Please model this.
Amino acid sequence: MAIVSMKQLLEAGVHFGHQTRRWNPKMAPYIYMERNGIYIIDLQKTVKKIEEAYNFIRSVSEDGGNVLFVGTKKQAQDSVKEEAERVGMFYVNARWLGGMLTNFKTMRTRIDRLMQLQKMQDDGTFDMLPKKEVIKLTNEITKLEKYLGGVKDMKKLPGALFIIDPRKERNAIAEARKLRIPIVAIVDTNCDPDEVDYIIPGNDDAIRAIRLIAATMANAVQEGRQGSDSEEIAADPQINDDIDTENGAAIGETPAEKSDGEDLG
Model:
């Protein structure tokens, strides 16, 4: 049985790419066709790529590695946080701070500062400080928590990154590549697939599409943590039998999810 069904992908709008005027030719192999100025992503290939990414993330987790979920665009913030937290992983859903990975030791000092301030807040130290100082320190906590709250328990570099929109997360991509940390990412039709180790061709703008794929990668982490002895999951033959029908159905639809407050292109 496939990890994600064609019906789920279609309902989430994963097949809607960007406008044809904004595309990366390297994504041509993953495009099914163009419809009304919008590229339709080939979901047969998406299904296979999701399975490859799932099996990889599961193996990282099974070996004791952590996965850092990254998605700072508005549409991705909630899903990234919720799915990472659900399986005890780390996340960045606000601005990516330079050196998050490549200058990890220095980043840890900022995290230590956050932990120290939170301890002071909890143990009553703030009650003994002047009100003006408390306001200043509280603001510092808020800022540090916003940018570092999702990684404050990350004691070592992650075994992999799961990224929503490589174009948006260029800095995270660059740091991971420099450190040879494998990257899994949702790659829309305007992205460069060469920057990613495990690409998932799909809509990186629609909230439902992002949530579906983020949840699937989180499930892979969870399965790996459970030490599953099951063999790698292969594509469901039934999907290949029905794929042309499903892709055909997608052609006649309109990219409603792209208007969920998201930029079409």
